[in-house]
């Protein structure tokens, strides 16, 4: 996910741990997601498609272990496996839209749901649910959240996971879109966490919405917009 001058891109944090995608397919899908009249079915499919591409890129440098003594239809061979226990941590409810994409890549992953919502008045993240086992059960966790707007929800999720016992280097955030302000806030609080994101918009409204953004991802995923 290298930056490219040949495709439109929003500027983002100078942190090497923020990876803003400039892949043409991601940018085209994101263009569709921004449309105000896109049907919910197409919105869900677009979020999943972008999620698949981001999880793929976020997995590029995972370690490999040899798997010997396998047999193809022709001859014996040595294969490869990722020797890590993977956790997927969708932030309810919008993170559900990225979960299937991540499970397609890691079908044996543990799903660690985190329930957080943003208070409309204070814009602060409020925890209401956590499905984290007593003991740390994953070597690497992908936090799934389509939007990093103010950054408060992502920071609250990272606090829950690090308090659980993970180090920052054991966490990667997968997000479709963020605001420059929100991404910078996450980086300042958790500089060791890698962020893989489809694009970063520069503006954040007084109500905490990314502009031009794509609206409320949860409402658009589940057809609950008023």
UniProtKB/TrEMBL annotation:
List, separated by semicolons, the cofactors it needs. Mg(2+)
Q: Which InterPro entries match?
A: PRTase-like (IPR029057), PRTase_dom (IPR000836), UPRTase/APRTase (IPR050054)
Family (UniProt): Belongs to the UPRTase family.
Name recorded for this polypeptide: uracil phosphoribosyltransferase
The cross-references to SUPFAM superfamilies, in alphabetical order and at most eight, read: PRTase-like
**PANTHER family to which the protein is assigned, alphabetical:** ADENINE PHOSPHORIBOSYLTRANSFERASE, URACIL PHOSPHORIBOSYLTRANSFERASE, CHLOROPLASTIC
Q: Which Pfam families match?
A: UPRTase
**EC top class, in one word?**
transferase
Q: Which residues form the Phosphoribosyltransferase domain?
A: 21-224
The GO terms this record gives for MF are: GTP binding; uracil phosphoribosyltransferase activity
């Amino acid at each position: 996910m290298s930056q490219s001058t040949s495709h439109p891109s929003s500027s983002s944090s100078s942190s090497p741990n923020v990876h803003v995608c400039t892949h043409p397919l991601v940018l085209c899908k994101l263009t569709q997601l921004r449309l105000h009249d896109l049907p919910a079915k197409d919105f869900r499919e677009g979020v999943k498609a972008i999620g698949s591409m981001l999880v793929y890129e976020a997995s590029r440098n995972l370690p490999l272990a040899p798997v010997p003594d396998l047999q193809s239809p022709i001859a014996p061979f040595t294969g490869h496996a990722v020797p890590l226990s993977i956790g997927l941590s969708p932030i309810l409810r919008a993170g559900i839209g990225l979960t299937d994409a991540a499970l397609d890549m890691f079908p044996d992953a543990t799903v660690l749901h985190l329930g957080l919502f943003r208070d409309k008045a204070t814009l602060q993240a409020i925890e209401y649910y956590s499905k984290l086992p007593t003991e740390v059960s994953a070597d690497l966790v992908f936090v799934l959240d389509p939007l990093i707007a103010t950054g408060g929800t992502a920071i609250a999720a990272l606090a829950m996971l690090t308090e659980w016992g993970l180090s920052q280097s054991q966490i990667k955030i997968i997000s479709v879109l963020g605001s420059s302000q929100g991404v910078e806030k996450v980086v300042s609080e958790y500089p060791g966490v890698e962020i893989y994101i489809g694009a970063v918009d520069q503006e954040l409204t007084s109500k905490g919405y990314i502009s031009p953004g794509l609206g409320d991802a949860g409402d658009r995923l589940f057809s609950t917009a008023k």
